[in-house]
Amino acid sequence: MAEEAPAAAPAKAPAKAPKKKSAPRPKKDGPSLPKLIVDAVAESKERKGTSLAALKKVLAGKGVDVSKANKRINTAVTKLVTKGTLSQTKGTGASGSFKLAKKEPKVRIASEASRLAHYNKRSTITSREIQTAVRLLLPGELAKHAVSEGTKAVTKYTSSK
What we know:
This protein is mainly alpha-helical and 161 residues long. It contains six helices and three strands, in the order αβααββααα.
């Protein structure tokens, strides 16, 4: 039997040319979407707030492509509500009506805590009043998280002394 020569290693495929990087997108001029939303709600004269549909109509008038940016509009509105910039008068989530919040959340928590202390005939605000005020003012899961973080911070502070 004749010996067979070992098969030659297959030739490597030629290296692919590196992809050319496309030019970076130019930055959009003008205010950001949350800023546009806050402006639209502020210029609305509705006493009970602006509905999401009316808000989208105003944004479309300002040059925002609402069909493309629909998800971003909804998330921006819910983040503004969570942050305390907007308050929700009707509905849940991104649906419903929105108006500008009257005060900053920290100021509201402090004033609510002092009101609770006064109601309980105490001269000082304790952590209990602050926790109750947070639970009253912040929505559901956010309140639980804020209370647990506050308790953790107080425990860490007192144990370090």
